Amino acid sequence: MENDTASLQVSEEVSFLGNNRTTTLKEEERESIEMGTSVDREPEITSPRRRIPGQGIQSTTGQSSFRRDFEHAAAETYLMSGFAFKLLSYLGVGYRWITGLLALLCYAMLLLPGFLQVAYYYYFSSQVHRSIIYGDQPRNRLDLYLPMDPHGKKPVVIFVTGGAWIIGYKAWGSLLGLQLAERDIIVACLDYRNFPQGTVSDMIKDVSQGISFVCNNIAAVGGDPDRVYLIGQSAGAHLSTCALLEQATRESQGESCFWSVSQIKAYFSLSGGYNLPKLVDHFHNRGLYRSIFLSIMEGEDSLKKYSPDLLVQDKSNAKAVSLLPPLILFHGAKDKSIPSVASESFADALRKAGGDAQLVIYEGKTHTDMFVQMIRKLWRGMQMPHQ
């Protein structure tokens, strides 16, 4: 894995996930020229500053800083809107889609006050450090949510969002980041290539590389490398599970790796799908049509290859399964997007293969209801004394 992770040395002058960049008077002059003003030239003075990279050079003027924040917010909004229209172009816009969209818009209007609060926090909070680079692909970015209190080692959560493998985006985890950062937990929300930018193997590679990057560098911002938890939701749960199994398989075969599954204290899988051949028809009836889904999964012959439920049943993978961290599977009994039987079957297969698996089924809960339930359980689990 030549590009499996980006290496980084941390010192007093080098901060998490990148190199320091210091604003000089020459840079101020360039910014002033762009704004139509001028400054007197002085000898250059540089000094190292600790900062979270990925944010660019810090402007010395409030106006320039606000302009960059506004431009970034506009770019992110444009990108998210493009994902939505791209999804519609693949799924087709018929009567059912139009009526469903109108119902969704009405529902969104009711949620608007809360959404605006979260959006403001995401774009303007000093606790959120957006688009930190973890790889060489355009979507190899993560958002980092830091607690207000900088003292002591913090538990760390790596979150991989869902989105039907088509519209997944790191900002979908902003509510999770907000809630857990308030509880003194560091959160890293990974972005990854979506279809058609990439297919399932590209997505798994991105997720694995992001996990490696966080595990090996989070200590630089106060994270506890012995308390790193992984969360995958929906399509993100499928990709995260595949990444863990792939990594465990490499380790079981003695391959050299940039990170280890032993660095993950526990894995929380939320509303995931693990047996793809059994889900093809279900997704087709839900609007993710067979041809599109098979394109995402690199053809019908690859469905078994990317089905964790089937992989753990293969006795040749027994050693890899034994290396996996504890898996806690959450699912809502009324989930229509991915039936809860998907988690039930996978948990059973893991136990039979010797894995450490727990299954939590919530009666009356749907595909998205599980988010709040998981946050509560995860936070309670992290308050237990670290062994």
UniProtKB/TrEMBL annotation:
It comes from the Eukaryota. It is found in: Golgi apparatus membrane. This is protein-S-isoprenylcysteine alpha-carbonyl methylesterase. Its main location: Golgi. SUPFAM superfamilies: alpha/beta-Hydrolases. It is an enzyme of class 3 (hydrolase). It comes from Spinacia oleracea. InterPro entries: AB_hydrolase_fold, BD-FAE-like_dom, GDXG_lipolytic_enzyme. The lineage of its organism: Eukaryota, Viridiplantae, Streptophyta, Embryophyta, Tracheophyta. One of its GO terms (molecular function) is hydrolase activity. The keyword Membrane applies. Residues 142-350 form the BD-FAE-like domain. Residues 56-65 have a biased composition (Polar residues). The keyword ATP-binding does not apply. Residues 20-65 are annotated as: Disordered. Keywords: Hydrolase, Membrane, Transmembrane, Transmembrane helix. Residues 24-44 have a biased composition (Basic and acidic residues). It catalyses: [protein]-C-terminal S-[(2E,6E)-farnesyl]-L-cysteine methyl ester + H2O = [protein]-C-terminal S-[(2E,6E)-farnesyl]-L-cysteine + methanol + H(+). The chain crosses the membrane at residues 101-123. Belongs to the AB hydrolase superfamily. Isoprenylcysteine methylesterase family. Its EC number is 3.1.1.n2. GO terms for cellular component: endoplasmic reticulum membrane; Golgi membrane. It is a multi-pass membrane protein.
